[in-house]
Design brief:
The complex is a heterotrimer of chains A (about 290), B (about 375) and C (about 260).
Chain A lengths: L2 E14 L3 E17 L4 E5 L6 H8 L7 E6 L2 E2 L5 H7 E4 L13 H7 L11 H14 L16 H13 L5 E5 L7 H18 L2 E6 L2 H7 L2 E6 L2 E7 H6 L4 H12 L17 E5 L2 E4 L1
Parallel strand pairs in A: 3-8, 3-9, 6-7, 7-8
Antiparallel strand pairs in A: 1-2, 1-4, 4-5, 9-10, 10-12, 11-12
Chain B lengths: L10 H9 L3 H18 L1 H4 L20 E4 L2 E14 L5 E24 L3 E10 L17 H37 L1 H16 L2 H11 L6 H31 L3 H9 L3 H37 L11 H6 L4 H6 L5 H31 L3
Antiparallel strand pairs in B: 1-2, 2-3, 3-4
Helix pairs in contact in B: 1-12, 2-4, 2-12, 4-5, 4-7, 4-9, 5-7, 6-7, 7-9, 8-9, 9-12
Chain C lengths: L2 E12 L2 E15 L3 E5 L6 H8 L7 E10 L2 E2 L5 H10 L1 E4 L3 H4 L6 H12 L4 H14 L5 H4 L9 H13 L5 E5 L7 H18 L2 E6 L2 H7 L2 E6 L2 E7 H6 L4 H8 L4
Parallel strand pairs in C: 3-8, 3-9, 6-7, 7-8
Antiparallel strand pairs in C: 1-2, 1-4, 4-5, 9-10
The chains are: A alpha/beta (about 290), B alpha+beta (about 375), C alpha/beta (about 260).
Amino acid sequence: MLLELKNITKEFPVKTGIAGTTGRVVRAVDRVSLGVEEGESLSLVGESGCGKTTLARIVMQLIRGYEGQVIYDSKPVDKNNIASYRKNVQMVFQDPYSSLDPRYTIRRVIGEGMELDRLRFKTQQERELRIQQMLKSVHLSHDMLNRYPHEFSGGERQRIAIARALVLNPKVLILDEAVSSLDVLVQEEILKLLARLQKQMNLTYIFISHNLKVVKRISERVAVMYKGRIVELARTEDIFNNPQHQYTKDLLMAALNYKSVVREDQIKINDNAKLFEYADGHYVLG
Amino acid sequence: MTNKPYESMSEFQMALRTFSRNRVALFCVLVLFLLYMGAIFADFLSPYRYDNEDRRYSYCPPTQIHFFDDGAPSWPFVYGIDLEYNEYHKRIYTEDRSKKYPVKLLMKGDEYRLLGFIPIKTHLWGVEAPGRVYLIGADSRGRDLWSRILYGSRVSLSIGLIGVFISFTIGLLVGGISGYYGGRVDNILMRIAEMVMMVPGFYLLLALRAAVPPDFNSVQVYFAIIIILSFIGWAGLARIIRGMCLSLREREFVMAAKSIGLSDFKIIVRHILPHTLSYSIFAVMLSIPGYILGESALSLIGLGIQDPFASWGNMLSDAMSIVKIKFYPWILVPGFFIFITVISFNVVGDALRDALDPMLKSEGQG
Amino acid sequence: MKNLLKIRDLTVCVEHQDNKKIVNQVTFDVKDAGIVGLVGGSGSGKTTTGYAILGLLDPALSVTSGQIEYKGQDLLKASDSEIRKVRGGEIGMIFQEPLNAFNPVFSIGYQIDEMLQYHTDLGKNQREARILELLDLVGLPDPKRLIKNYPHQLSGGMRQRAMIAQAIAPNPDLIIADEPTSNLDVTHQARIIELFQKIRTELKLSILLITHDLGMVGHLCDEVAVMCKGNIVEFGTAEEIVSDPQHQYTKDLMGALKL
């Protein structure tokens, strides 16, 4: 396994009023264990508040102070190897309008991605060449380099964000709702681009989304999150054709048939519940 | 693909464009430019040095420059000045028509040092001795007010710039660090800022000035004043920058920068602080007048720049008597210069804010 | 079936630039108690069309031609006071982000009450009763406590339902919904869609649904108008559009993210 998450738990203190804390905690991520193989596409699905964004940030080491381990290439990530970790794991953010610094030209935006590895592209020419290469791979022309983000559409900006993430040739790309704020047709384009890049560069994707249609398109495996826990993990066709956990069933019903399930109380998760293997590669929380 | 025919403009260029549509603001920029040019070339532009005194001409009213000689147009000239005392022992100055002194251009006058070390005597204009030309009149010691205003502008205008630069730098760093890190660091830094702001400005100014050793010469006093003014000035800016940084650090491009591996310091300096620039520039413009007035206030009460050096503030201390103002109203002119300087900075600052504001608004949209 | 709203040849341009058409010759009807979907990507002009009905266009845009006939009156030619009566009272509007539409410093109850005060003659007690009734209708739990809550205290889904409650309070005949579920989770989205179906059936009001989600539109609407770059490129019943799209753009939309 290329990237593995072992028992990740992240708690946040519950604050009340102006300055007090209640002493209670909220578990945004609760004992999550996951793994991705090289070249795989895994999707993390859930609704807002389920913890998927927090988990993504933990994987990117943007949030520290969690329990459990993030293991890359069989080595746990810590302060010593974080620089090399970052070269291999990059992120594309949700909002193309705010993930690019509006004051930077496109050249500078993409070039900044090279910050981690100054030694690799030593001369100005090498850097410029690389930037142009990246732009080409996301199908943008290089006369855009001197322009500013606000001159581009959402889809184009997202391509720029992808170019920035790929500039140091990472192995893993985490896409946090990367197409959610785009038009349906533009989403289609970006997904096609991502599929092609995956083949070309042998990338591994961790796709975070709440849009099940997108998820079905792009992923091989799906992990469903609810209240910080993984409630179901299986291959994509198994999740869609044979969902086992109640929450997964509700989610699919709402997303595909627009039918909501009225519940008096929310789905209860037993604190001691564990993922057990229901079928080959199909895990359910119970 | 977006292939726009026009040239791409950065935010800054767009703001400049909006700004240049504001006629009043452009006029004030011109005024400020002229004032600062006057300060830089004070030696050259003034007929006399700031300490060139002639007690025979104490409080001499402005000498009239004549362009007509007995009805016929002529090269500008002045008449000699005659002094008489009336029955109340008050001085009356009249023109002595028997002596004519033409205005000379590029004439040799008092010596000064160009760029600080080249001794030169050339002044742009003046009148040959024993003639005196007082463009705006003379002060109690017969020193030319116009010359002293030009020399004085050096002090007043530079203190504004240097002082603001120092407090701007401190304010940005403190605000940036405070806002970015939050938590305890933020708490401590902001409480310090508040303590500084808590003390009434002017009293703090006086107290700090009193702490400066009395045997400092004027130049040292000058720098001490700048440091003192910067010391009380940074807190307000720091607080606001801190607020902006608090919200800016949540923006996605900051997270993107973190995930690329930029160090915290680089993130603050390269990504966060530039976004506060639009506010900072305008805040800076609006606080420069405060420094000018602060220095003037100190010099007015005798704690700032001392005689014989000129500053607009200490020139005004001469005018603290209603009798003098009534009889010699020209001694108020330094106040008028303070006035137009302050107004110009305010107008330019306001216009800058208007020019940069739409940038702030459209930044979030797409 | 009568036509409640008739839009004919509506054209909206950027002010003083008649060649920049945001909406171009748009023509369609909304029937009594019918749900019409206005679908398109960003820049298609669908939002502008919706806003034009109530005269809420951006000041930089202006209507250069067309009629919007509502109950026999051309809304584009109505006076300010006439439009104000229509706004809210007869044609309500629901926005994408309830946080922006609600005033953060007033409670939900207060704001719905304001709506009733302005558009109806009900007395204080009657209004209170009506507010509770409305909150119950939209499926919000514990209405008595909710009316004292502020917008930020509710979750996104609940806020949206509160906004719907506010919009239907004065018994309008038509609701214009601008991307009402784009910011919501899938389960909340489903609930809102069901709520729309409920209020159409029970209150017999029409809905103009503006969205980019062709799937939702196919599920909820009777008729669909597909817009692209300011023009309606296809119009038909929901079944027709979904099962047998004719225009290339509609085909592209249906093809994208097909399951």
